[in-house]
Amino acid sequence: TLGVVIGSLVAATSMGVLAQGQGAVEVEGFANRYFTDVQRDFAHDEGNLFGASVGYYLTDDVELALSYGEYHDLRGEGAAGSKNIKGNLTDLKALYHFGQPGVGLRPYVSGGVGHQSIGDANKGGRDTSTLAIVGGGAKYYFTEMLYARAGVEALYNIDKGDTEWQAGVGVGLNFGGSTRQVAQVTEPAPEPVPAPAPVVEEAPQVVRVELDVKFDFDKAAVKQESYGDIKNLADFMNQYPQTSTTVEGHTDSVGTDAYNQKLSERRANAVRDVLVNQYGVGADRVNSVGYGESRPVA
């Protein structure tokens, strides 16, 4: 009987909230290259913006960030060419991060508003403007806390109707998200698997085949005329290899019981030898037994 038991393996996994998840705080220092509009009276139409930002993760993907930076290396044209123009930029942006929190790359897109205050190269005083800011970039988290960022932003001057650009890099640290409590979710217990139906082993069928194998008086050698019947039995057994057989030997009632018992055993073994040695039936599938005078043929 071959029983097959089929089971199921249920694997449960859980992931804790990583540092840049909901509730985390990021602090970053950045350096941007600032490309000014041609309408400004600057010698090279570009400069640098150095600053810092702090952000708070409203969800695992959405961050609200406040930044402040100061302009450097801006100089006027002509007579004002030696004048070092001062200025600053304060902005509030929302960033949406793609990918899963954790170590690795997280691209983002951003949008927000800013207030720019920058010196006038020729007239003196300061120009103040309200900016609409959109951008994009990527952060790479070397660990759950330490990351580097690269990005580019377009700054649309709502007051003057022109657009300026800045591209830069930053390095930051992320704190706090991993301490957020995670609600425990209990998975429903799997429904019990019904026990397999019992395997009922069919009782082997027993078929009795009588071979009329004749022997000379007081002999145990199989006569040639009986080989055809024995071969038919061998062919059947070779066609159905799950079958087995028992060869029974008998004698008549002439002689002593002990002698007839021995003679019936030799005759049964003789037929068995023909099945095994001449017709190739497996020896483990053929048994022989002698009955002597207990079941005489005459």
UniProtKB/TrEMBL annotation:
Cited InterPro entries: Bact_OuterMem_StrucFunc (IPR050330), OMP/PagP_B-barrel (IPR011250), OMP_bac (IPR006664), OmpA-like (IPR006665), OMPA-like_CS (IPR006690), OmpA-like_sf (IPR036737), OprF_membrane_N (IPR008722)
Source taxon at top rank: Bacteria
Pfam families the UniProt entry points to: OmpA, OprF
Record bears the keyword NAD: no
Gene Ontology MF: a single term: porin activity
Annotated TM spans: none
Keywords: Cell outer membrane, Ion transport, Membrane, Porin, Signal, Transmembrane, Transmembrane beta strand, Transport
Annotated signal peptide: 1-19
Gene3D superfamilies for the chain: 2.40.160.20, OmpA-like domain
Subcellular localization(s) per the UniProt record: Cell outer membrane
OmpA-like domain mapped to chain residues: 202-298
Entry GO terms, CC: cell outer membrane; pore complex
Name the UniProt record assigns to this protein: OprF
GO biological process entries: monoatomic ion transport
Broad class of where this protein is predominantly found: membrane
Recorded topology in the membrane: Multi-pass membrane protein
